[in-house]
Amino acid sequence: MNIGKRIDRSYGELTPQEQRVADFILDHLSDLAVYNASELARLSGVSKATVSRLFRRLGFQDSAEVRDHARTLRSHGAPVGGPGASAGTPSRLAAHLAGEQENLRRLLQNLEDGRLDAAARLIAHAGNVVVIGLRNSYPLALHLRQQLAQTCHSVRLAPLPGQSIGEDLAGLGPHDVAVLFGFRRRTAGFGQLALAIQRRGIPLVLIADSSARKHADGAAVWLECPIDSASAFDSYATAMSLINLLATGAMGAHVRETRTRIAAITQVYEDLDELEAPW
Q1: Between 25 and 230, residue with greater pLDDT
Q2: For residue 170, with 0-12 CB atoms within 10 Å meaning exposed, 13-18 middle and 19 or more buried, which class applies?
């Protein structure tokens, strides 16, 4: 049970001084990994003994164990933070910028060995492309499917809301491609899904953060995408950048055919009056 839930469960039994510390912790969970007991006592206006007593009441031995607990929560993708943690201060914005730049630098470094081009070629030459995303990976899969639809004649999203995924995999084979997003806090059956794709001989492009590396052994292409963040939530800005590069690479593999398809799509937009005029 994470520290926030532990506080919620026992809040009514805490002394007023302990509640002051608990309130501060809940409002600054994103910083909890760097505070020691003395700093928490000073910032919340209580004694160090009160902080230590609260930690023991919550089931922790000391502040070091609390810091380790906070780091573990964040590394697993759990959002940590609270209404008291300001996101718009100059220092927070600077930390956010530095984190985004570092994520992008690491992503591009990972792509220098040609794996991005390999994934783009697989997608461009596939008979069918199935893009799969569950939970927090679903919006990313949806966006990639939309971009690839400009280039590929047969690309679909799986699973559709409320549907199972077996129908989308049946009939696929070595001449098709499955693009699987698997960012952390994945569903329990994610490993089984990756194995099912591989056992059917379907080339797999796996896009995920480093925590999914254990599922990458049988993938045709493994695209590792950092999502670390200085804020309460994981950042998917780098993942969206990767989607841009991947779709652009697939488009470049068949330039003439792609231009013809885009022209046809644009004509349908106009026939249906689907898009707002750009002028």
Answers
A1: 25
A2: exposed
Contact call for residues 66 and 32 (beta carbons, < 8 A):
yes
Q: Which residues contact 148 (CB under 8 A, 6 or more apart)?
A: 123, 129, 131, 155, 247, 250
Report pLDDT for 83: 43
Instruction: Quote the CA–CA distance of 163 and 138 in Å, as a whole number.
Output: 13
* CATH number of the 104-272 domain: 3.40.50.10490
- Model confidence pLDDT, tens digit, residues 117-170: 999 999 999 999 999 999 889 999 999 999 998 887 889 999 888 888 888 888
Query: Which of 234 and 80 is assigned the larger pLDDT?
Result: 234
Q: How far apart are CA 47 and CA 43, in angstroms?
A: 10
**3-75, what's its fold?**
Arc Repressor Mutant, subunit A (1.10.10)
The C-alpha torsion from 193 through 197 and 198 to 201, rounded to 10°, is 170
Q: Can you tell me the distance from the alpha carbon of 50 to that of 41, in angstroms, rounded to the nearest whole number?
A: 8
As a whole number of angstroms, the distance between CA 265 and CA 165 comes to 28
CB-based contact 57:113 (threshold 8 Å): no
- The continuous run of DSSP H or E covering 243 comes out as helix 237-252
Q: Where in the sequence of the chain do the CATH 3.40.50.10490 domains occur? A: 104-272
CA distance 6 to 29: 13
pLDDT at 86: 56
Q: Give the pTM.
A: 0.70
**248 or 91: which leads in pLDDT:** 248
